[in-house]
Every structure is written in C-alpha cells, then in structure tokens.
UniProtKB/TrEMBL annotation:
This is Alkylhydroperoxidase AhpD family core domain-containing protein. InterPro entries: AhpD-like. The lineage of its organism: Bacteria, Bacillati, Actinomycetota, Actinomycetes, Pseudonocardiales. It comes from the Bacteria.
C-alpha cells in the first residue's frame, strides 16, 4: 500500500471517473500512481497530458532501445511498480521480456544488441549519483542514433528517473501487471 492512499472510484468525481475508465480500458487496471496523483487534480492532469505527449513524440528510436533503457532506470532506482508496469508495456509491445532477467549482464549477454547496450549504459550513467555521463559516451550515442535519438533517449531516461523516484518515495509498489492475476491485460 502506498504512503498516500489513492483516490478510489467511489470517491472520484465525474471527470476522474472517466479518466479511470480510460486508464482501466487501456491497461486492464487503473495504475496506482494515477490514483495517488488524483489528490492534486492539476498535477494529475498535467502529468497525464505530458505522458501522452511524450508517448506520441517518442518515435525516433527503436522501441526495444527506448524501453530497455527506461526499464533499466526503474530497476536501478528500485521502483517495483515501474519495473512491473514497464515489463507489461514491453510484453504488449511485442518485445522479449525474458531477456530482462539478464539485464545485469547486458555488457556480455547476447540477449541485447549493441544499440541496446549503449542505451543501458547511458541509463546507468544518467541514473547514478553523481551522474557519470561522458562526452565520449554521448558521441557514441550520437554516431549510432543521431542527435534526435540522443535527445529522445536522454529525455526518456530522465523522465523515468522522475517517475521511478516519485513512485518509490510515495511507497507505490508493483501492482501485478506482469503476474496476470491482478490485471488481465490482453495481448495486442
């Protein structure tokens, strides 16, 4: 249970109920971070608009590169909710989620492409404290993905750091998106 209980459907007003309905339809359940944000309607609405806009805008990088980097951030920060939800999104996107079990060996594992290794290493460098990003690392990313790709990857990693740290601080833990028990999200 999170440190701040989410706003239930019963407590929600009509606008929030509609938002919950759309979230449940899309994900199989209303994501708990969404219900906690509902305590502050303006922040929740800003977050929802931002998430949708970033999702629509992030189309330059291959999904496998972007999603594995985001997953790595969630894992490194220790946000079990983000790991759970991110695994579900990768599964629904048709990506291989079995390889996520080997992400700690990404440098040598054949489960990851050279491009994915670069992205995971960048996620590690951006997530560490203090940050450990180097000019050489960014230049390798730029040579591989172009400037647009580096900007997209950097933004996605930074955004996941924000999400994962906020969820972790609020005590939001995995919701069962990957177990198949709590949320029966259909395959595409």
């Amino acid at each position: 249970m999170s440190r701040i209980p989410g706003v239930s459907t019963r407590e929600a007003g009509p606008v929030l109920r509609v938002m919950y309905w759309f979230a449940k339809r899309r994900f199989g359940a209303v994501p708990e971070p969404f219900t906690v944000l509902a305590h502050h309607r303006k922040v929740m609405l800003a977050s929802a608009r931002h998430e949708l806009a970033v999702e629509r805008a992030s189309r330059h990088l291959p999904a496998s590169v972007r999603e594995v980097a985001v997953y790595r951030v969630a894992q490194q920060v220790g946000c079990s909710w983000c790991v759970d939800f991110g695994t579900m999104l990768q599964r629904l996107g048709g990506l291989d989620i079995e390889r996520l079990k080997r992400i700690d060996e990404y440098v040598t594992s054949p489960a990851f492409s050279a491009e994915e290794r670069l992205a995971i290493a960048y996620a590690d460098a951006m997530t560490s404290t203090p940050m450990a990003v180097t000019d050489e690392q960014v230049e390798r990313l730029r040579a591989t993905f172009g400037e647009k790709g580096v900007v997209e990857l950097t933004y996605q990693i930074a955004l996941e750091n924000q999400r994962a740290r906020a969820n972790h601080a609020l005590g939001i833990t995995d919701q069962g998106f990957t177990s198949g028990d709590a949320c029966r999200v259909p395959q595409p």
